Amino acid sequence: MNSDLQDYSHKRLNILTGEWVLVSPHRAKRPWQGQNEAVSNEVRPAHDPSCYLCAGNTRINGEINPNYEDVFVFTNDFAALQTGSKVFKVEDGLLNAQSEQGICKVICFSPDHSKSLADMNAKDIEKVVFAWQNEYKELAENELINYVQIFENKGAVMGCSNPHPHGQIWSQTSLPNEVYKKDLHQLEYYTKTKSSLLGDYLNQELSKNERIIFENDAFVVLIPFWAVWPFETMIVPKRPQSNILELRDNESLLFAEAISVITKAYDKLFNTSFPYSSGIHQSPTDGKDYSYWHWHMSFYPPLLRSATVKKFMVGYEMFGSPQRDITAEIAAKMIKELI
């Protein structure tokens, strides 16, 4: 392990976005006198009659959920994107805007209100993977949709308004900012080398074995060299694939195993139901050739030192660039010891 990276301030390049993160390892021991988050010790029931997502309950719009037994998907009752709305552009000097349309869905991972992905076994998580695949395929066939974003916000600290195990799928006409940057850099690298940017990066990480947390026959869980969040992780398929529809044979179960391993390890880290935002970045759905894409799933947890200390993105992070104290290598070591 490069000792300079562990002792001195430096910046690291995110090869997928072209952006830098400032790393300040010497600050990791500074005393904390800032805000401490409340830790919820609530024991949730398997079924909550007041929960809009529980099986058989009535949602706010009056629709009744079916008595689902594994995964349940429905169109978001408060969708951020609309379909069938007016198509328009505003080009007024330096004032530019244009309409954006899309379809937003909610995916309940389990009928059990008390669970999270960390409490589910790999076979049950595989059912969630199958649902993600079905939704990606169905939405991709819609001419309106050019990108499908699968994500989950877990925990009140991440703004999650309902503790029932669920995620969301937002699909839209244009590429979101993060996806646009990743598309650009993967294409640029593939054009020069005729190989996968993330695939070549993964091979280098496997050879160094400094940030690897877990691997099976098809997937690797690691902390990216350029990670921003203290315990940020990424699940990367070993075999280059542009999207999750390219999973084959037993790979869907191995993907589910990787999700199970990292979410369970997170919960052990600070002995709490670990909050995070997670998301899958994969190829756009506009019908073009995206063979240079290498899909991946990222987890962005906000906790820094304990279950009550949160990493805030303020000050320099808002006006300069992202910054972190604990290095990716130390964070990887901490999580790996819990698996």
**Proportion of residues in extended strands:** 15-25%
Please compute the radius of gyration using only Cα atoms: 20 Å
Oligomer: single chain
The average pLDDT value, as a whole number, equals 93
Structural class by sheet pairing and helices = alpha+beta
Helix content: 25-40%
Named CATH architecture: 2-Layer Sandwich
What overall geometry do the principal axes of the alpha carbons give?
Answer: globular
What is the helix tally?
7
Give the total of domains.
Answer: 1
Order of helices and strands: HEEEEEEHEEHHEEEHEEEEHEH
DSSP strand count: 16
The CATH class name reads: Alpha Beta
CATH fourth-tier homologous superfamily = HIT-like
- Main beta-sheet annotation: 9 strands, antiparallel
Strand order, largest beta sheet: 3-6-8-7-12-13-11-10-9
Helix and strand topology:
Layout: H1 3-7, E1 10-14, E2 19-23, E3 72-75, E4 89-92, E5 95-98, E6 102-108, H2 122-140, E7 147-154, E8 166-172, H3 177-193, H4 197-208, E9 212-215, E10 219-222, E11 233-237, H5 251-269, E12 276-281, E13 296-300, E14 303-306, E15 309-310, H6 316-319, E16 323-324, H7 328-336
Parallel strand pairs: 2-16
Antiparallel strand pairs: 1-2, 3-6, 4-5, 6-8, 7-8, 7-12, 9-10, 10-11, 11-13, 12-13, 14-15
Helix pairs in contact: 2-5
